[in-house]
């Protein structure tokens, strides 16, 4: 995405900055854009314009039609630079895949129903009128839709502001508007490799090695969507894949300079450390000297304090007007005279000191702090309250009016009030009535606020002071005069204390700098409660007996020209405005006859320090010069809450010295270096001077961080001021005060600049020639990305310059940084207009990213658009930046569009791992021997025949070998009435049971049915399609009696035939079953309409219904001749979607049953509860085989019944006093989730688990520790012993390798150690290494031992590539040797050769004679300090994950479960997660619980979590509904099914985000 322009940047030392006059500025602009906008013949170059020519009316009409962008950030050069950059991008045709969104998420708002936001904020604190404000259209020069015809919809292109070339600008904008039509050609070959480290694009997929007997799923069922073959031959419909292909193509575009080539193959994955660029510009000037302002003149009649001034004017000229407030029509509402101000302030001062609290105990004493809560349209009441406080010697703390109980940032304001000890709030009558009230009419306590007494200051509510009472008026001293609040970058609110002497000195300095004289009239548009508005409009005005006309914000909203009309009406000499007020006046200006600005001698621009105010000043001057505005009248100033006014441009009479102006290189600025940009480059910042230092002040520029070292003359730093007229502290915060108000700058030689302390202003800039101060940004807006500094305001400006789309409310943009992977990342959040379409917004977003990347040379991590009016507001309507950031971090922004670009901006990932050439197996073995490490081998106890008095063997007849069918016959004769099986119904009642004899009899009748009706031969395969129950068991033994080979198959789900029946059909076909046995109900189901629609039922083998069995028995029961003959086939679908049938011989079955019998100590008097699916693996063996072999009673609980009654299993275990029970993870999860809140109720029902000796989870995966722990914890209160919960591990080649049952047989003493847990380093694991770490250390992953190795099982850990043995605690493939290994995959297609080594592998070195089966699982053995029952040291087996599931990304091996665990932790709404790789992109699918509006919140959170914890960039984030991730009966996620469903566009996702 980022085709950034890395042009060489020559460095030029700072020449005289002031040489770029308006003329040079215009000339530069024309040169800049000449290359991009072809001029029609005969068009004059722009350089022929006079420097301040008559305003081009057409030009401003055109600009007016744009009305979509915040003028504070407007700079024509900048806009055209952005357009030019984007024009270059159009040529390079980068197509970015658009996210897909569910219809319900695309909210189409009708414009009539929509109310515009009452604020599209200018500065962070203050709002601006929306662009479609009701009263606005009337003031527009011409309505927006009458823009020049050839510009069409792009008339707002900022390039159209250029005189002359507007046609071409339109063309340029049009060409940009069509960029999204270019589609990349779909690549039909193998998907390219974009991981960035291998040149060839060959890559192995988990699918590339196919199991035998695994048949690619029938693709026909997905309809005939147009297909495209992907790399590994998975057919996919083109929509999703085309987008992924587009993403892949985008990511292959050339990006930033490549990462440095190094990789240390050590355990620590090293994050790249950004090395400083050797070519970066460095400051070259001399060290700066501190700049001193002119001396503060001593005027004889200056009052000794501000109260003394008020007393003087209130008694000498009581009739003189002091303040005129206006209503919303612009008519004077009230004129406050100096006499009135004086008398009302005295009255209020008396009441504050004497009428609050009781007579004995006054509530407020001199020096106490009180809050001033007044609305912005009531300056009169505020002024009276402020001076009342000064006279009473209490300290006013002006704050904003709280609108609701939960205003953004109100908690922090409350903290300020609390820390200042405020107990009283002064307010006006109207404001008091408007505050939110509780039902009883009381004002509620606002969030985080102290308890306040609200006191109304109107005269009618106050008592008259006695005649002899008079306020004590002192000379200005070091007492605190007032506290001004300041909001920091992180949202905390600080109180800056200003002393009385500072207050007075500041007023004197302003009077001198601005040349104020008595009785001047001043128009104030600024907020009078703080900052420049307070200093000029409330304080300095009283010192000079001036008349202030206060223009409220509400009036400006209705009539943006009001302040200019008031200047004309009152012949005002001074006006105090912000650049946005000038912008509004331009937008609303028509050729009005009745205004003139010739009376103005000073137009004070309060935010002149904002680098982007320059264009408003230029434009305003251009239009209003004809109305008598003189250029030298415009006076930008720079100020901060800590240092008050820092610098101000003086209103000079002669305009001999033009204002200073610098066109600075953005790249230089990002390295804190001033470079006048003499190249015609696009990334420049034009700054204007803010005049010279204040009278009586000393200013220097210091390094922003660390020791306050003086900067060089061409270096940007933080301005510091030494003066009496500054704040003195942050109230109550001594540490922060020291860092800000007590700074002693030092020179390079180490000498102090002054013996007096300086105050940090929070402004970044430099002092140019002639002592002119230039500000380039604020400390609060500073974002440092890989060593370069960027200013948030500059980035906002670039975003707003991407003009031709009108999607975003101007000024409703927040830019901040978040820390991801140890570096700051830029986040841009904007409010989207309700009428913009998805495509347009996306188009705008991708172009904003390109513009920021090209102009600032920095990538944006996340760009989010939120619905209009949803960002948290400050009390004045601006965006509350820190609350917005907090919402982003917590996932509470609820954006409607998100575009993440981690690929562009995360450049400090560790290097991809280069695979080292494998060390030969011999060397490994020798190395292990030399280092004294043992080879990782372990075995269970011996399975040999034990002596006859052993209780275990006494339950079987003493013969060398028994087939299972013979064992059943023997039991039916010796213990005919012994119950072997009990099946429970969903209510927990016994629905049926089988004794040894009943089972034998039924099996005989099944055999008769097979031989007679089925006409089957010995060795034929029979598919048993039964629900979990007793019929299945009888059918299985019937097959053995008839000499047939049974295959258990899960029946199709009646509600879901279309997806479950094809699997049944496939198993029947692949296993070459000669007939199907089932119940009458399922028989009907197989022939139903839905079944006919799903599969072709004509080629089913014969289906036998076993509900009515023949009454006779077969002529003879079959006895196998060879123990190695096939007993049954175990078919299952693996998590990767592979169907495989494993052959189990009679020999293996006998050994298996014997092994389980020994491990679990099973004999006829035992009862075991089984809640497992009986179709494959250990679940089938326990359900069907073990009881017959060992004679114990099995209580069968079908897991399906738990869906309607989650407590069924545990209640059965409790009531039947069962000691051993087996379940699956899905059953455990059902109980944990379904019974979490019912433990008390269950206890009342008598549920008691204290008898449970072993609760074993049967699984083919790494133990799920968090689930087993929550289960143990939850049921601990019901008597479950935590040590009784354990796990078993099996796989396809060996259905049970580990099984821990007798863990805590506290009745007989333990016969084995507890399962142990170790913590391994996840980063080492990715490199196929095991590194043990302490619990809780970063990147640690807990692994639990998988259970005790079964008798007769030997295990070794081998290298999957070289097949060499590995040492203790080394990660490798688990190989197993045992009598109950499967004897091979079953395939009717003669392709056994391919997978034969799964069952018959030999080590390449060492013990090469033993035959091993490869499990396909990675794990390690670790010898523990515990001892076995035999007295041997105990070897623990830890399973890490399946090889076929593991993903190889960036050369490292990742197990999906680890990434999924991190993702699920990120947000409470993520219920489940699955990840899979696709063309080397990581795809993350999350299930969302909650409203769809939260879907987009998850995208940044998921991306960040995976980056931080796994150093991987997520390529695609898919948000879906609950239940979309397919899970098999064992509770395992089927990620490959999910992948296919995603690529075939079948998931119906809520949102799909393609990360750039």
UniProtKB/TrEMBL annotation:
<feature type="region of interest" description="Disordered">
    <location>
        <begin position="98"/>
        <end position="215"/>
    </location>
</feature>
<feature type="compositionally biased region" description="Basic and acidic residues">
    <location>
        <begin position="202"/>
        <end position="212"/>
    </location>
</feature>
<dbReference type="InterPro" id="IPR000873">
    <property type="entry name" value="AMP-dep_synth/lig_dom"/>
</dbReference>
<feature type="compositionally biased region" description="Basic and acidic residues">
    <location>
        <begin position="67"/>
        <end position="77"/>
    </location>
</feature>
<feature type="domain" description="DMAP1-binding">
    <location>
        <begin position="1"/>
        <end position="106"/>
    </location>
</feature>
<dbReference type="Pfam" id="PF06464">
    <property type="entry name" value="DMAP_binding"/>
</dbReference>
<dbReference type="Pfam" id="PF23024">
    <property type="entry name" value="AMP-dom_DIP2-like"/>
</dbReference>
<feature type="region of interest" description="Disordered">
    <location>
        <begin position="41"/>
        <end position="77"/>
    </location>
</feature>
<dbReference type="InterPro" id="IPR025110">
    <property type="entry name" value="AMP-bd_C"/>
</dbReference>
<protein>
    <recommendedName>
        <fullName>DMAP1-binding domain-containing protein</fullName>
    </recommendedName>
</protein>
<dbReference type="InterPro" id="IPR042099">
    <property type="entry name" value="ANL_N_sf"/>
</dbReference>
<dbReference type="InterPro" id="IPR010506">
    <property type="entry name" value="DMAP1-bd"/>
</dbReference>
<feature type="compositionally biased region" description="Low complexity">
    <location>
        <begin position="152"/>
        <end position="163"/>
    </location>
</feature>
<dbReference type="InterPro" id="IPR037337">
    <property type="entry name" value="Dip2-like_dom"/>
</dbReference>
<dbReference type="Pfam" id="PF00501">
    <property type="entry name" value="AMP-binding"/>
</dbReference>
<dbReference type="InterPro" id="IPR045851">
    <property type="entry name" value="AMP-bd_C_sf"/>
</dbReference>
<feature type="signal peptide">
    <location>
        <begin position="1"/>
        <end position="17"/>
    </location>
</feature>
<comment type="similarity">
    <text>Belongs to the DIP2 family.</text>
</comment>
<keyword id="KW-0732">Signal</keyword>
